[in-house]
Amino acid sequence: MSFQTAVAQIKSPIKDLVLAASQNGSQLVGNSEKDQSEVRTWIEKVGQGELVQEANLPELNGQLLQRTYTVSNYLSAADVALYGALHPIVSKQDSARYYTNSSVTRYFDHIQSLPVVRQAADTLAPQFSPVTFDLSSAPKGERKAEPPKKKKKADPAQAPIDTTPAAASSAVAASPAPADSAASSAPAAKSQKKEKKEKPKKEAAADGGKKKGNTEPAESGEPAPSMIDLRVGHIVDVKKHPDADGLYVEQIDFGEETGPRTVVSGLVNYIPVEDMRDKYLVGVCNLKPANMRGVKSFAMVLCATSKDGKEAGIELVQPPANSKPGDRIYFEGADFENATPLAQLNPKKKIFETIQPGFTTLASREAAWVNPDTKSVHRIRTTEGVCLAPTLIGASLS
Fold this sequence. Notes:
Blueprint: H1 3-8, H2 14-22, H3 33-48, H4 57-63, H5 77-90, H6 95-100, H7 102-113, H8 115-122, H9 165-169, H10 179-206, E1 230-240, E2 248-253, E3 261-265, E4 280-284, E5 290-292, E6 295-297, E7 300-301, E8 303-305, E9 314-316, E10 328-331, H11 351-355, E11 359-361, E12 367-370, E13 377-382, E14 385-386, E15 396-397
Antiparallel strand pairs: 1-2, 1-4, 1-10, 2-3, 4-7, 5-6, 8-9, 8-15, 10-13, 11-12, 12-13, 13-14
Helix pairs in contact: 2-5, 2-8, 3-5, 5-7
């Protein structure tokens, strides 16, 4: 089934909403064949009508529990269709009922606030007028500890014997491996490990340590600040997290065709919401997406924290005037200026954690990375100028 056929099966005014959003220039059909298939599947479910029946909301709530969008990490036609189908139900619910399905409420509120959706919805008013939620008085969820699980004793007659060295040394092994078996397998295991270690070295030597056409810094090398993808972002929407008092959920435009990214920041107690709205900032855009109390965050806001601690002040690092969403931010220095960041930082490599202690603001309030070994200073900048903290000097950046 094609995208057009799937949309044609939806009844108006939801179909009209999807078509109106598509005309606004967004890439709503999906960015890959897999995503396109998922978008069509969700639209088909919406068209069938059962997905958003009031009796089925708990099931939908579970599906949306750890999702910001229905498909991948960007807005698609599936989200527009689902928002349209949910609108008549959500808009009629009292506060107690939308607390019950908090993931649906969070998802609906997020989608309705996106510029592409809002613009399309406004053309079809009043069918899709904005719904206001009073989340400030939401009851706190009770978290009950799970009862301790009883450990089952392993049956020696049924349990297989693991003869690897790792199993032999493990304190939780069900039964110890025979000494002669462990000893005989150890050389083979060591040989395999040695081959695995030597193979990448030989391949790297064959092509000079870098594959042709790859301009990214080698992830296996020493952590470098240029591995971090910093970009100018613009906050187009910000709300308090529905399930966490100290978190904001922002929609930040990084100049991407897929639209704004959802970003969760723990800044509620340090920066008033009015000082977050419509602000330009520096975003770390290649961290691995992380779930923050049920909302997936796809970037990190770079902030300056006073040298006297958080309570003494936290500020958004500001890009130069006239910056545009998506502008590249880089580190001064021949080794860094023309380097390409990694597509995504590997959390196990702790690249950001290794580099971050060198992030600071100079006496001029300019953001910079100071090399801990050479003490050389590399200011953080765009082609238009250097990024600044509004007031803080000697601040830590994270």
